[in-house]
Write a structure and sequence with these properties.
alpha+beta, 3 helices, globular
Length: about 120
């Protein structure tokens, strides 16, 4: 079954999280997300607002504890922004973010991936 991917607000920045196959928190910026997550846009927005206030390093280009990827268009192709020295596990993530990240479980581990093609078996 193919997962439908779309952006909730095309043309605008949108941050969302997922958990990879090894249990690590992954942050995605811009671009499309799996459709089941889109029924929770308000919760995702609240988590992003919490993270911007409480974890501002997650939104800078400085190394952080997250596997972080961004998209520069509407296609589900994400490029790595940062490689964490000590990646954050979902179980250790702040509850505000962990709750929405748990809504999207990736079928693969991001590990050393530099590009994530969400439409190619990741979700």
């Amino acid at each position: 079954m193919t997962t439908i991917l779309r952006h909730p607000r095309p043309g605008f920045m949108w941050d969302w999280w997922a958990v990879d196959a090894h249990g690590f928190l992954v942050q995605f910026s811009c671009g499309p997300a799996p459709e089941p997550l889109l029924v929770h846009v308000d919760r995702v927005d609240a988590a992003a607002a919490w993270a911007e206030e409480n974890r501002p390093a997650w939104f800078s280009h400085a190394p952080s504890s997250l596997h972080a990827f961004s998209c520069d268009g509407e296609l589900p192709v994400y490029t790595r922004n940062s490689v964490p020295d000590s990646p954050l596990r979902l179980s250790d993530a702040p509850a505000a973010v962990a709750e929405v990240a748990a809504l999207v479980e990736l079928h693969k581990a991001v590990g050393d991936a530099w590009t994530v093609y969400l439409d190619e078996g990741w979700v």
